[in-house]
Amino acid sequence: MMWLDQMIFLLPGLVLAGLATLITQVTFSKYSRYRSVSGMTGAEAARRLLSVQGVRDVSVEPVGGFLTDHYDPITRTLRLSPAVYNSDSLSAVGVACHEAGHAIQHATHFAPLSLRTALVPATQFGSSASYIIFLVGLVIGSLALVKIGIMLFSLVVVFALVTLPVEWDASARAKRLMVTAGIVSPAEQAMAARVLNAAFLTYVASAFTALMTLLYYLLRAGLLGGSRRD
Length: 230
Known about the structure:
The chain has one domain. The protein is about 70% helix and about 5% strand. It has helices spanning about 1-30, 40-50, 80-85, 90-105, 110-140, 145-180, 185-220; strands at about 60, 70, 75-80.
């Protein structure tokens, strides 16, 4: 009963996440058909942006998968998927410049990025252990364990919320700097920006789903008024 109850409660978040992913994939595919006038690949665009901003201690390398692009602040490595690293499309250039934006955030000590990086270990543990501890607490009637599970999942929520300004700022930097660095023209920037805007929806959906999950836990535990449901 609990599984069905949870699925019904979280359905809006799951639908939103699915739509956001679909919109991102469709938008990326659409602008993958537009070649950048500069002819730069995603890897070249990222390197140009980093160089113009004086960031010279970040390596750019390929990584497997589709849209698995990310910046690793620990190793100072910007990893780009094949569809981005080797392509000179506006989608590839936009995504690459967005990831370069994270490296620039790191170099300029952007506070939300520092906080998100610090939260990673605790968030990884919280996301895997919170539900188990919460469920065990419900089964054996231990409110203490239920609260521990909720507190652990709260770290996931904080991480998702902190991610929003980090991703928005990286995209804002990319949109601005890709033009001033001579990577794309203003007209091309508008198209590349649509890819970044679509991708941002996935982070909004993730934050919304995390918040709804936390709300469900609190309601299930009877910590938002009423008695705990069995």
